Amino acid sequence: MIENPNRTQRDLQSEQHRKVCVISAVSALVLLILAVVCILLLRNMGGGGEGGDGVGSGTGSHIGSGVDQATGTISPDASPEVVGEHVETNRVDQFGDQVDMVLTDRLVMANVILNSGIPPAQTAAPGGRDAGSGGEQGDKLGGGRGSGHGSSEGTGVGETKFMGIKAEGRTFIYVVDCSGSMQGRKLDETKSELMASIRMLISRQQKFFVFFYNDTTYPWPGPQALRYAIKKNIDDCETWAQSISGDGGTEPAEALLAAIDMNSDVIFFMSDGLFDEDVCDKVRIARGNKQIAIHTISFVDKSGEAIMRRIAEENRGIYRFEPSRKTSP
C-alpha cells in the first residue's frame, strides 16, 4: 500500500488527537456507568436494611428499632444489631454523596472532551499567527476542565445573611434566643429569618449548626458537629426549630462557649433583652486567637445593646439593631 504523499504531519497529529479524545470519552462513560451501578447496589442494600428494621416497630417519632427518625440518632436502648445497621446505612449514604460529586465532575469532563473539536489542518508553515490556533484550542480545553472542576467541588466559601448582617465563610453557627420575652410573634419571625439564612448556604460545601437558649442551652439534636447544608439536614433542623417555644430567662453564656468550641468561621448571636455583662469576658477569653467572627443582633429591644455591641467589637464582628419587620396583629 502506497502512503498518500499529501498526508501531512499535521494530518497525522489531528488523527492521533481524535483517537485520544474518543478513548478518553469512552473511558469517562464507562466509569460513569460503573459508578451508577455501584450506587444503586449500595443504596438498595442500605434501604433494605432500614426497611427490614422498621417491620413491626412502634409508633411516634421513634420506631421500634431504636432509631429516632426526626434526628437520625440512636436511642440508648437500641440493640447492637440496630446500631450496626444504622452506622452502615449512614456510611452508604455518605459514600453515595461522594460518588455523586465525582460523577458530576466526570460528566463535565466527558462533555468537554466530546465538544472540544479537532483543530483544522494547517497549510501554512508552523509559526506566526496561524500556529497560534492550536494553542487557542488548548486554552479552551484547559479552561473547560478548570471551570467544570470548580463547579462540582468549589472552595466552600460563600455568603449568607441573618437579620440584616451579611457574612462570608465555610461554616456558620446560629445562637438564637428563645426566652420568655421571645414568645409568640418575635420567635416566629426569628425562626423564619434563621431558615432563610440557612437556605442561602451552598449544599455539600458549607456547614452550619444551631443553638437555641434561654436559661438552658438547646443544641440541634444529634451529633454536636457542623453539618452540610443539604436538604435532609435543613429539613431536619427546621422540624426541630419549629418545636422550640419561648420560655425562661436569658443566659447565653453556655451556648456561646459551646459554639466557640466548635470553631466555625462565623457565629450569629441574637437576643431581645438584657443579660449579665460578664458574658463579654467569658466569650473573649474562650475565643482567644481563633479566627471566629461573632456578629451580634439586638432584636426589637435595645436594652442589651451595649453588651451586644461590645461582644461584636471584641470578637471581629458586626453589631446591628434589628426592629421587627412585621406589624403587630
Could you please describe the fold and organization of this structure?
With 329 residues, the protein is of the alpha/beta class. It is built from eight helices and nine strands. Helix 7 links the parallel strand 7 and strand 8 (293-299). Helix 7 packs parallel to helix 8 (305-314). The radius of gyration is 28 Å and the shape is elongated. Residues 46-65, 67-73 and 101-153 have low confidence and may be disordered.
Assigned CATH architecture of the largest domain: 3-Layer(aba) Sandwich
Radius of gyration: 28 Å
Indicate the percent of residues in helices. 40-55%
Mean of all residue-level pLDDT scores: 74
Number of strands: 9
CATH superfamily of the largest domain: von Willebrand factor, type A domain
The CATH class of the largest domain, by name, is: Alpha Beta
Biggest sheet record: 7 strands, mixed
Termini, distance in Å?
93 Å
CATH third-level topology of the largest domain: Rossmann fold
What is the strand content?
5-15%
**Structurally, how many domains make up the residues?**
2
What oligomeric state best describes the polypeptide chains here? Answer: single chain
Looking at the structure, what is the overall shape?
elongated
Low-confidence stretches: 46-65, 67-73, 101-153
Number of helices: 8
Structural class: alpha/beta
